[in-house]
Amino acid sequence: MLEVFLGGYMFHPAALDYSGDTCQNNCAYCFANINKEFRTGNLQGAINAFYKSEPKTYRDMLLSMGYPILVSNRSDPFTVKNQRDSIALFTHLAERKGGVFIQTKTGPGMDECLDLMGDRRDVVVYITVTTIKDDIAKIVEPNAPPPSARLATAKRLHKAGYLVLIAVNPCSEAWMPRDDLETLCKALKKEGMNHVCIEMLDIKRKRLSLLGEKRVKRMGAAIGMLGDRNRLYVRECTEYLVYQGFDVAKKGMPFKTELFVHMKDRLGTTMPVMQDFVNHCFDKYGTSGAVLSYPEWESIMARDGIMLKTIKQNNIRDYLLRSGFASWKDNQEVHSHKEFLRIVWNDPRHRISVQNHSLFRVIGKDKKPTLDEDGNVQFYFSGQPYFGKKKEVIEV
Length: 396
Description:
Elements: E1 2-4, E2 16-18, H1 43-50, H2 58-64, E3 69-71, H3 83-93, E4 100-104, H4 110-116, E5 123-128, H5 134-140, H6 147-159, E6 163-171, H7 178-191, E7 195-200, H8 208-211, H9 213-219, H10 228-243, E8 247-249, H11 259-267, H12 274-285, E9 290-292, H13 294-301, H14 318-323, H15 325-329, H16 337-346, E10 360-362, E11 364-365, E12 368-369, E13 379-381
Parallel strand pairs: 2-3, 3-4, 4-5, 5-6, 6-7, 7-8
Antiparallel strand pairs: 1-2, 9-13, 10-13, 11-12
């Protein structure tokens, strides 16, 4: 199914997502089938969307403007079940303008799809490596190619000129202990590969019962490391990767990174990401400290493309629905990304709010934000993250 990539807003440069049938890799930690065990792709619907003569929906507009497509966020495109549809899809992707972001553990059909793209290099390949040990992967990700094979494919594609991201996602100390992470990093450096994505294993304990006893058992020691322990471990791993000179992507990234810059260079017209603003702040202010106002945020995040357009339908508000129901409910009329950016800046009730990023602290007094003449909050940026459990306003 080809959809607007609602869950990727402010973090992923792709605007659209195509997900096929339910993945056969049977990963114990899979988020995509916790609430919906079986998914069915709609290949014909996606292909039809490519050839609409006049864009009628927000999705159509993104397609016509050449925004990149993620293949895919909810199922691996390169499994036995999905390979034929993926090859058919790439036959048409090769003919349209706009980059392709491939998210996979590798597998059947991958080489055929890349061959269809020919000499185009507006393709980014994200390969998940949850562990470097094949025996652990056989338990946790039993039907996926072993990590040794994935890394071999990653090295081959890197040498062929593709931008390849190695994704330790999800990262758990049970599967990727520090020694193994260091071994992986040395292997990547040896090959000249410098781009790593890392995210914590984020399954709330109350949702574990939805996974089923067998899946929980396959996750093994990772279950006992959920929550604060895993959060701290991933934070330490992120710092290690940064200090080793890797370009790193992580939600809430508290460091400057060029990874998204390199992705955008390949993918062409892309959605803005929070890291754009983070990089801007580090470039302009370093660690000297600065007060940030809304116009500066808008000038960085709404420079071109879809961000400057008024949308006839109210589709943009759907991004809020994915990140915070209360905020969605209170903002019934949002018809441009600029309007939405103001909500992202001012409303702390959704996950993608600037106020929830560790690098930005709201300026205020007596626990209340101080608003500017246009009713917007202001932030203080010092280049130093704040990881306190309760992030209250500060006086400057």
